[in-house]
Amino acid sequence: MLKSLGQTDGQQPQLQLLWEDKDVKFDTPHLHTRLRTGEKVLDYIYHIEDSKGNPGDTGRLMVTNLRVIWHSLVHKKYNLSIGFARFGNTNTRIVHMHSKGRMPSQALYILAISNETRFEFLFTDVSGETARREQPIFASVFDVYQLYQRTYLYRDLKLRGAIVLSGQLIILPDEQVYSQVQGVWNLSSDQGNLGSFVVSNIRLVWFADANETFNISLPYLQIESLRVRESKYGPALVIQTAETGGGYVLGFRIDPADRLNELFKELCSLHTVYIEQPNFGIHYDAQDARQRLADAAEEAAQATQFKIENFEELDERQEREINTKLNSYLAEGCVSNNNTDQSDREPVYCKELGFAMERIREGYKLQDLWNVMPTKMETFEE
């Protein structure tokens, strides 16, 4: 479909493949000191041992926006990197360290799956501090991993996603739309599909006019090259995606040619800027997260504390007295039904209630029978 007859290439930077979140690596030189562009360390967790791979070596756990890194502070060559995309299961557990008299300690368990190979990691707190046993010292790993799962559109190519609503692109946080181009033909099929381009500072989006679910979201991070080449439909914009983005060759035709060239230059410029400083969409403040956890724990502790001022001791003798009179009245009525003259049960007019009722027996008042429960309880003080 696309012929290599004359082509126009922009000055594009060398693409650095994104592998940090998709691989599990061991003992890589300078692993923890040479992070890729755009990768940020979000939290440090000290006094951590790689109990399965390097028992006895105290190290440090680093949580970045792409992966978890552990490196030994005893032997500099020992380290490992676990990309968040390789996480299969993770949890915390209490383990007993043999080196410290089987003292219980908190540990982070990670099951990673890479190239159909399963890796199990156990990172144990070896600080010996009792207070750390009750604290969520590995909370940042779980928090950042959840953020990573929700920000895949910043990193990965997405086909047929729920990214368009009523003809409008659903904007990501930190995303700015620079231009929208209509009348763009997707040359992935022989007849072509007419749609629209949305160009932002993070990605290039195309969606079909007839069916919004037929779309593609392509981050600049997954674009290997941009070209204008000749096709059987005329000049076309050709996008080669990276190997981590599927290695696709995408073709789009835009009329007239001047409009195509303007879009090509804009994309080359945005691609260059983004590669130099990519945005992975993850914002996390470890200190703020710890403060929120501490506040929540304090609030929960206060809620469970018994406060005498929140309670009022009531005199239950009033309730017992009223209930006793009513019950006694009803009981006496049942016993005396057969021994009482019918004239004693003739109705009389009650001024308080405004209607006729059975005559109340001696020793009882209307108030005793009317108020089954007291209307106002008095505070009982010893």
Walkthrough of the structure:
By secondary structure, the protein is of the alpha+beta class. Among the domains are: 24-152 and 286-299, PH-domain like, CATH 2.30.29; 156-276, PH-domain like (Roll), CATH 2.30.29. Helices cover 21% and strands 36% of the residues. It has helices at residues 130-134, 139-150, 257-276, 286-304, 316-335, 366-370, and strands spanning 2-9, 24-26, 41-50, 58-64, 67-72, 79-83, 87-97, 103-114, 117-125, 158-159, 164-165, 168-169, 177-186, 193-200, 203-208, 215-219, 223-231, 234-241, 249-254, 347-350, 355-358. It has a 9-stranded antiparallel β-sheet with strand order 1-17-18-19-13-14-15-16-10, with helices on one face. Strands 2-6-5-4-3-9-8-7 form an 8-stranded antiparallel β-sheet. It starts with a strand and ends in a 12-residue tail after the last helix. The relative contact order is 0.11. Residues 39-93, 175-229 form the BBSome complex member BBS5 PH domain. Belongs to the BBS5 family. Pfam families: BBL5.
